[in-house]
Amino acid sequence: MAGEGSINEFSKQLSNFVNALMHLAPSRNYITQFLYIVKMNGSVDYRILEEAYADIVKDEYTREAFAKAFGVSFTDKVSLESGKYGWFLTEFIGKVLQLFEDSEFRSKVGALLRDEYPQGIPNLAEEWLDVRVKGLSSEPTYGGNAIKVLKKVMRVGRVKMEELERALGVGRGTLIECLNLLDLYKLVIKDFDGSYKPADDLRKYPGVVERI
């Protein structure tokens, strides 16, 4: 029968393991957030990342060291080089998000660590969605309109650009910028017929947008 000492050691090691995974989540880590945003998009315009992640991108020495360490290609577009550490890290992070989205995993581990996590183990997939929506809303030029567009898309389920123009009274140029932002954060999906619908994780966690 296991003694109290061995149980305490197990709890400590489990806590260390869970915390280590949580610290990799893009919702909690500036480095992995940069890499994961790039991975989600395939490539991102350099100017967008230069503004959003200035600490990584603007300084030439930092940018070059980061590129070599993680296999990031910086040109007019920023992308991850296949088979390099950044690519593999984002693949692993995707699995971490799946793990922490699993309600049974959170329930069982939360029961073992109830003193440390009295509110339960966080759903990192939902948390990452929340960070993206808040990032969208905080964009100084188009964020407010982009949230209006997103809420309209969620209300109707599927909508074309012309319908958004009429419903929201937003000009075509502004609407295109809003939709580009929504695509950057992977909050909407453009269908084959040109209509837009909510991303799958928004369908699972609509409350994230309702709280904005």
Commentary on this structure:
There is one protein chain. Helix 8 packs across helix 9 (143-156) and helix 9 crosses helix 11 (172-184). The chain folds into two domains: 4-122, no CATH class; 126-210, Arc Repressor Mutant, subunit A (Orthogonal Bundle). Strand 4 and strand 5 form a beta hairpin. It starts with a helix and ends with a helix. It has 212 residues and is mainly α. The strands form two sheets. The protein has a three-stranded antiparallel β-sheet. It has a two-stranded antiparallel ribbon with strand order 4-5. The mean pLDDT is 95. It contains 13 helices and five strands. It is globular, with a radius of gyration of 20 Å.
Whole-number total of structural domains: 2
Strand residue content? 5-15%
State the helicity in percent bands. 55-70%
- What is the CA-CA span between the terminal residues? 51 Å
Structural class: mainly alpha
Order of helices and strands: HHEHHHEEHHHHHHEEHH
Principal-axis shape? globular
Task: Enumerate the spans where pLDDT stays under 50 for 5 or more consecutive residues.
Answer: none
Largest sheet: 3 strands, antiparallel
Name the strands of the widest sheet in spatial order.
Answer: 1-3-2
Number of extended strands: 5
Secondary structure tally, helices:
13
The radius of gyration is: 20 Å
Please tell me the overall pLDDT: 95
Keywords:
single chain; 212 residues; mainly alpha; Arc Repressor Mutant, subunit A; 2 domains; 13 helices; 7% strand
Task: Record the SSE blueprint.
Elements: H1 4-22, H2 30-41, E1 44-45, H3 46-52, H4 54-57, H5 60-70, E2 72-74, E3 77-80, H6 85-101, H7 103-112, H8 124-137, H9 143-156, H10 161-168, H11 172-184, E4 188-190, E5 196-198, H12 200-204, H13 207-210
Antiparallel strand pairs: 1-3, 2-3, 4-5
Helix pairs in contact: 2-6, 8-9, 9-11
